[in-house]
Amino acid sequence: MNIHSELHRKLSHSFLRYGIIILAVVGGIFFYKDHNGYNDVAKVRTIKNCIVTTSSTKEPFMTKNTYYLSIYTHDEVPTDTEEADGEKNDDKTMLSVWDLSNEEPIFQCTTSQAHFKHFVNYDAEEITIFKSEDGKEFPVYAANADEAEAEREFRHIKPPYGWYALYIIGGVLGIICLYNSIRLAKVAANYRNENYEFSPDPMCTAGERGAFAMMDLARQRSADKTSNADLLTSFLSKDANDFKWPD
Q1: Which superkingdom (predicted)?
Q2: Where are the domains of the chain?
Q3: Alpha carbon of 234 to those of 69, 217, 220: distances in Å?
Q4: DSSP 8-state symbol, 2
């Protein structure tokens, strides 16, 4: 029993070490990439005196919408205020209108819903355009955003699903290692118990030894059931006169 206990104890420690290493590596990569980014982005230009409009379309027989961001330039035209009660108002630019200088947008792009929703009712008069490493230009909703902020915003447009899948796979492997470590530690503890009797694994994970033990256990249970059935049959077949009643 001591040999088996020592073997399972070593296996438990190995799985524990591998689980901790895997989870630490996955966690370290995640925090590094989350801080430093998944894509290289560069500032293209800042557009001033502009209006940002949003729109979406849905093609026939399609379940998803296509979201658009459009940027127009405008000129602010001051309009005189009306005089009230014969008193002249000195503020001649209290009321103003926006006059679109271009009927066609100077910039337009498709985007995701997560990125699109930040530009609904966008009221800033300037916007900054960035470009990703694959050449896609996209606006950011913070006019003074730096490259780090722009890269985080770009994840709403193009999430790094490949990296996310690797994080999930690595996390699952780490958890499996920790689970096996706990399971083997329990087996090692059972082997150290002098009163321990081998209990076969129902899923046959104990290998050939477990399979034979399950067969022996099944035969023993079958024999016990047969013995109990014979005893019950013998009891029921006896006549009442066969019993010795107390005086």
Answers
A1: Bacteria
A2: 3-32+164-193, 39-76+102-159
A3: 89, 26, 21
A4: H
Three-class SS of 38-82: CCCEEEEEEEECEEEEEEEECCCCCCCCEEEEEEEEEEEEEECCC
What number of other Cβ atoms are within 10 A of residue 71's Cβ?
20
Q: In the numeric block, which tokens belong to residue 51? A: 């209006």
Nearest-CA neighbor of 130 among 38, 45, 48?
Answer: 45
Residue 85 DSSP symbol: T
The alpha carbon dihedral of 47, 51, 56, 57 has a sign of negative
SS3 13: helix
Q: What does pTM read for this prediction?
A: 0.60
Query: What is the three-state SS of 87-138?
Result: ECCCCCCCEEEEEECCCCCCEEEEECHHHHHHHCCCCCCEEEEEEECCCCEE
How far is it, in rounded angstroms, from Cα 7 to Cα 15? Answer: 12
Residue by residue, pLDDT tens for the chain (247 residues) are: 577 777 888 888 999 999 999 999 999 999 999 988 898 899 988 888 888 888 888 877 767 788 888 888 865 555 444 444 444 444 433 334 444 555 678 888 888 888 888 888 888 888 889 998 888 889 998 878 888 889 998 998 889 999 999 999 999 999 999 999 998 888 888 776 655 555 555 544 455 555 556 666 666 665 565 555 555 556 555 554 554 544 4
